[in-house]
Design brief:
With about 400 residues, the chain is α+β, with helices and mostly antiparallel strands. The protein has 2 domains: about 5-135, Creatinase/prolidase N-terminal domain (Creatine Amidinohydrolase, Chain A, domain 1), CATH 3.40.350; about 140-385, Creatine Amidinohydrolase, CATH 3.90.230.10. The protein is built from 10 helices and 19 strands. It has helices at about 5-20, 35-40, 45, 90, 110-120, 135-140, 145-170, 175-190, 255-275, 285-295; strands spanning about 30, 50-55, 60-65, 75-80, 100-105, 125-130, 200-205, 225-230, 235, 240, 245-250, 305-310, 315-320, 345-350, 350-355, 360, 365-370, 375, 385. A 6-stranded mixed beta sheet has the order 4-3-2-1-5-6, sandwiched between helices. Strands 7-8-11-19 form a 4-stranded mixed beta sheet, with helices on one face. It is elongated, with a radius of gyration of 23 Å.
Amino acid sequence: MPAPTELLQERISRVQKILKETQNGNPMLVTGDANVGWLTGIPTDFQKDACMLIRPDKAFFVTDGRYTNRIPEIPGVEQYIWGNEHVHLYPELKNLINGADHLVCDTTGIAIDMYQALPKMLELDSISAPSGLLDRLRMIKGDLELKLIREAVDMAVATFNYMVNDWMPKHRETATDIDFRDELLAEGERRGAEGASFDPLVAMDKDADTPHPDMDRPATSLKGNHIMLVDWGFNYKGVCTDMTRMIIIGFKEIPEIFQGMRMLQEKWFDMVAEQLLPGLPASAGGDAYQIGVKAAGIENRFHGAGHGTGGAYVHELPKVSELPEGLDDYGIPFGQAIILEPGMIVTNEPGMYQKGLGAYRTENMVLITEDGHEALDKALPMHPFFVA
């Protein structure tokens, strides 16, 4: 099922609201692929050849005749096929700006020379490209968007519980880690998912000793004793999920060396969680992870502590990773420098990896609230899951 039109209307209306409140009611040209996809739900192959012209009173989906039969039907959004008068898109936008003398532009998706030519081309007095305008709207979830994300999280949690409690005990003697991944995806779709939000990472023992294990490797049997890492997410009605949990297969308790890895990882996880608060920069969580890694005698952290997620795309701003000392953000919203605000969702996923042995990593989805944060997937414990 594509993104509900109500969700797309919510996103578009939020853009219109910000144009009224902060941009003097001027129209906005949205050209960035990801931003067009967020507002319309169109697939990736279509995004690069589409844009939107959004006025406070009306919105237009703009593309050319090749895509006529694929234009999304969004209540309140008019279709506009360019090419009727010009062989290039931008001159035709003059028909849509409704006499405005200023145009607000997306900061992505338009070439510098075209941006500089727009005032003359469209007979404008001025143009602007306010930094971070759409980035902030995408990061802070709307009411309906958050409701759908909660539904998606519940579905992802139920899917994982089924895999650990029902499927794996029945199939462990005959199945492989790749079978687990495939069934995880299939079960998610049976429960309403529209596919994976990223290629799931399902790896055991030494195959998991890197943050992004090779999923094209030969399958490994689930027989015997194993330490399995499962990093999975689903697309659902225009939103997505991203979580990681550990499964202990066959062992009655975690092997001693993994106990040490778990101790460090859980300590880092708590350190990061303490920094996921409104008013703090996203880099604070990354700094905490880096401090913990260095205190453990490890030279470099393995990856960032987390990232924005939950909306149309699984990897979004802000970045929960350290901002190197002395690096100015230059007035650009570098992902790490973004201040956390209520309505943002980030992951918390520090990991411990040992070459040739394996990994210990957990990951949850954290909603920043007015006075702290909420773990959206708290129904699924962070402790390791044992399968006898």
